[in-house]
Amino acid sequence: MSEHTAYTEGPKVPARGERETLLEIDGLSKSFGTVHANKDISLRVDRGEIVALLGENGAGKSTLVKQIFGLMTPDSGTIRIKGDTARIKDPKDAIRRGIGMVHQHFQLVPVMTVAENLMLGHESTKGGVLDLEGARQMVRELSARHKLSVDPDAEVEDLPVGTQQRVEILKALSRQVDLLILDEPTAVLTPQETDELLGVMRELASGGTSIVFITHKLREVLAAADRCYVLRQGEVVGGVDDLTHTTTSDLASMMVGRDVVLRIDKAEATPGDTVLSIKGLKVKDDRGLPAVDGFDLDVRAGEIVGLAGVEGNGQRELVESIAGMRPSVAGSVHLGSKDITKSNARDTNNAGVGHVPEDREKHGLVGGYSIADNLVLNRYDEEPFAKGFIRDFGAVRNHAVTLREEFDIRSPNVEAPAGSLSGGNKQKVVVAREMSAKPQLLMAAQPTRGVDVGSIEFIHRRIVDARDAGAAVLLVSAELDEILSLSDRIAVIHDGRVVAELPGKGADRTEIGRLMAGDSDAGSDSHSPSH
Amino acid sequence: MQWVQHNKIWAGAAALILIGAYAFYFVNSNIAVSMFSYAWFLAVPLVLGAMVGVMGERSGVVNIGIEGQMLVGAFAGFFAAAATQSVVIGVIAGALSGIAMGAFLAFSTVVGQLDQIIAGVVINIVATGITSFYFESGKTIPRGLPNFDVPLLSDIPLIGPVFFSDGPIALFALIIAFTLHFMLFKTRWGLRTRAVGEYPSAADTAGINVVALRLFNVTVAGTLAGLAGTYLSMEATSTFERNMSSGRGFLALAILIFGAWRPLRALAAALFFGFMQSLASQLQASDVVNIPQQFINLLPYVLTLVVLAAAAGRVRAPGAVGQPFVKGD
Lengths: 531, 329
Fold this sequence. Notes:
- The complex is a heterodimer of chains A (531) and B (329).
- Chain A has 17 helices and 23 strands.
- Chain A is α/β, with parallel strands linked by helices.
- Chain A folds into 4 domains: 180 residues, P-loop containing nucleotide triphosphate hydrolases (Rossmann fold, 3-Layer(aba) Sandwich); 65 residues, no CATH class; 162 residues, 3-Layer(aba) Sandwich (Rossmann fold), CATH 3.40.50; 64 residues, no CATH class.
- Chain B has a domain of 207 residues.
- With 329 residues, chain B is mainly alpha-helical.
């Protein structure tokens, strides 16, 4: 770790007065229920600079920029735009004050043309009739000036995503923006499109537009940003004022943080037979690009293997593929001697795989069902919860009452809908269900994301208990602390492949950070910004 | 004529129908005029009903309460006219009752986030209940709304007597269909309405007040439903009967779909349905074919069903129709 990336409250403030300060955020906080999405955030953006907000999913980046754009209101703290601290009432107000935003999910009307989308909200009319010719002209001028070619008469739904994003950027630029916010602009782009976009960003910045861009890809930060802030669990945990001498591994270490390590007492692992065996697995992501690319890993009974990696390196696709939620294109997955490569989710589950999914709201629970029903989602049709095709509600209830006690699920009763629980308690329901089935393999993806500290400790304890009971555990987490405190063995994933395996005991976080950033980058400055 | 180039099929169909209608007119002008007049007479409430649907659904709010809104309009118009012995007050009352019904749907679904289908069902049930409960037989109004000739236009052969020698609400329906079509595709209100109905968060982030626009559209659309009802009780007839809307509101929804949520296409669809019904009664009266009457009465419905089924795969509803808008999602 180089000495210029000190963990301070934020980046050192450079000499004032060189450039106009466009945006200044001071002590901003925002909570949803008991979860602090943003906690005492302070940052600054000057005219004509590109500032990256770096952090894992759920670190609070999107929440932060939504407040700048007037889509959410902060609980406390101030947002100062060009010296004006007036509350940003809504997007209209934000636009009026020179803020433009390109959303992660494009905000374009699919059935309308590019010109119509650009004029929406600030339409010019001639005698009450929309001036479509004027809008077309505006599109042509803007695309010529910013070298972003689009056809003004094309319907948005017919355009490829990369072009749609160009339309989004043009839309923001059509409103005279001083500050352009890009929320994960590269998430849907191919590498070529990404390079193109980074070029456009630099072009805009040299023209005096300030840019805030959100990403969790380290390379992009170094390639495009002047400065960066690192967010973790809603807080600014660090920042870099001068990225010229920073490497991706420095950034990776900052992203995964160095909080108080949650220590957990556990006995030495006594690994038994190999339970999970993955060989040469290849899986594609939603765009059809390779996400898991020749992945090999064995997990044995009675051990916890932690899979560490910067998010977006194929972890999600890997877990979904093992769980039977996503087809693989090559390779094999064996559970003991059973081939589960092609098994669907239910068969995989019945074969003995417990899965605590990353997105518990979407894949872990049925929010409208009761806690009791959610606790038997994987076994509702089996004895003793059903006799023949008749469900036995008494057995379901008793089961729920026992698990509620055992897993400390805080709810008025077991009939309450699972959707009404807090994040931590929802997760306990999922963990309780998956563990009570006594799986051979427990696969936990981001098991403590968005979960309060008390529940984190409890869930960690339970994962260790499952190991001690003889289960093989595959833990996938973006939190390095979680990996370090729980794992008996650590595998590092980068670009869809295991790049290193090391023992959990005495593992060095700097070393892992370096590996997470990809071996080839380590210690090199070849990705420094070119400006 | 850019429109003709972009809509060759529709332009062709329109030209064919027009030629056919005039050929018929020159063969037997009396029967032609009476058949087309009757078709338009039947189509008027459907056109108005479909326009209610256009305004609501284009901005993202389903309105299955058109039927009930119409019924209340018919009731309020008739009994206000009967009580005051003034047809003008009757029409105003009919329109105002429509606004009230529209406002109920608007505020319950857009502000209260009540399910739009449920809100529509509530309107239909309440409308039936109120109009039956407060119904009094034996009331009369001084006269129905009179027909009048529009100068010059009423002299056009066939089109003149069919469309321009009618009562005021029928003429209004014709005008509103053209006006709404123009407004929807050529004005700022129209662009915003379509954006809000297709992708409300895009409109929101572009600085458009989604909630206000939906409230406005659904409430104002209620006026048209009220007038459609008033047409039934004060222009087409001069009497109010229980359940006098008799399914026209639902038929208007079918016409809205067949018309692909476009006002002029919906106007054409309503005329098509009216003509089928007119044809059925003509066949029945002239005894030209020897088919049991019940089957002939089925004709317009069967044809509507066939046409709807054929259109179903090809038309697309506004993207956000039926979904409540939650800010900041």
